[in-house]
Design a protein that fits this description.
- It is built from twelve helices and nine strands.
- The protein is of the alpha/beta class.
- Strand 4, helix 7 and strand 5 form a beta-alpha-beta unit.
- Helix 4 packs parallel to helix 6 and helix 6 runs parallel beside helix 7.
- About 2% of the residues have low confidence.
Length: 269
């Protein structure tokens, strides 16, 4: 087991949903990123998805695209992020951390060198949104050879019959893309996702997580009976920017949403 699997096992025992946040590495700077990681760990965030800045993040919306651009302008690169990971692990960070990154960055670094560096620095998972199933073998094999980092499977509403193939031999959790615009999600939009999530749940032998588009805390509720974990991405990134990347504000945000999720989950059992 790595940190992700240990955390998921613990949550299963406690009958709790997982709360996951996304943040862009390098914002407001490397030290600020480190402070935010520790703040979220203290707040009880279960897993942190750390976005690796990329020049052409085509799978992301405008908020995350802008965050990636701002980080690049500050001189952030993969080598500096690996150094950050070494520091936070050395200083006691135990929260599972998943790299969300585009495959070109991995190829440029070197697949086996990347996998080995992930092991050395304590990266628990890798999510690559532009890496299709048919081309995953080199990275998956390299990560498995190093033994401690999981390639996180990702599905969407358009995956269709491919979901069965995607779910073969996977570990950690399955990442379900919501594919709903941040400014336009509605109750109807959530209801339209029910058949998709039911299919994933039926086929998956690992926990099912979904990215939620939220504007207020109650937005986390409509589909929670169909998923095992909640991922908050754009809303949290936007919140951090508005709050000046204040660790205390991040801590309170994560603590409040995690508590909200568990209260409503417990109330439905």
């Amino acid at each position: 087991m790595n940190r992700i699997e240990e955390k998921l096992s613990l949550l299963t025992e406690k009958k709790e949903k997982a709360f996951v946040t996304y943040m862009t590495a390098g914002l407001p700077d490397i030290k600020g990123t480190k402070d935010l990681i520790f703040a979220q760990q203290e707040a009880g965030t279960d897993i942190i998805e750390l976005g690796i800045p990329f020049s052409d993040p085509v799978a992301d919306g405008p908020i995350l695209q802008n965050a990636s651009y701002q980080a690049i302008c500050r001189g952030v690169n993969l080598e500096k992020i690996f150094q950050l990971m070494e520091e936070v692990r050395r200083e006691g960070a135990s929260v599972p951390i998943v790299f969300m990154m585009y495959y070109n960055t991995i190829l440029h670094y070197g697949i086996h060198s990347f996998a080995e560096k992930c092991r050395e620095c304590g990266v628990d998972g890798v999510l690559s949104p532009d890496l299709p199933l048919e081309e995953q073998a080199p990275l998956r094999n390299a990560l498995e050879e190093c033994g401690s980092t999981i390639l996180i499977p990702q599905v969407s509403q358009v995956s269709g019959d491919r979901i069965y193939e995607i779910m073969k031999g996977v570990r950690g959790f399955v990442y379900c893309i919501s594919s709903m615009d941040a400014a336009g999600q509605t109750e109807t939009s959530y209801k339209e996702m029910i058949p998709y999530l039911k299919k994933v749940k039926e086929l998956s032998k690992i926990p099912v997580f979904m990215e939620y588009v939220i504007q207020k805390p109650d937005d986390i509720l409509p589909l929670q009976d169909l998923v095992d974990g909640l991922i908050v991405r754009s809303h949290f990134v936007e919140f951090l920017e508005k709050q000046g990347y204040c660790p205390e504000a991040a801590k309170q945000y994560c603590r409040n949403l995690k508590e909200k999720l568990q209260i409503h989950y417990s109330g439905r059992n």
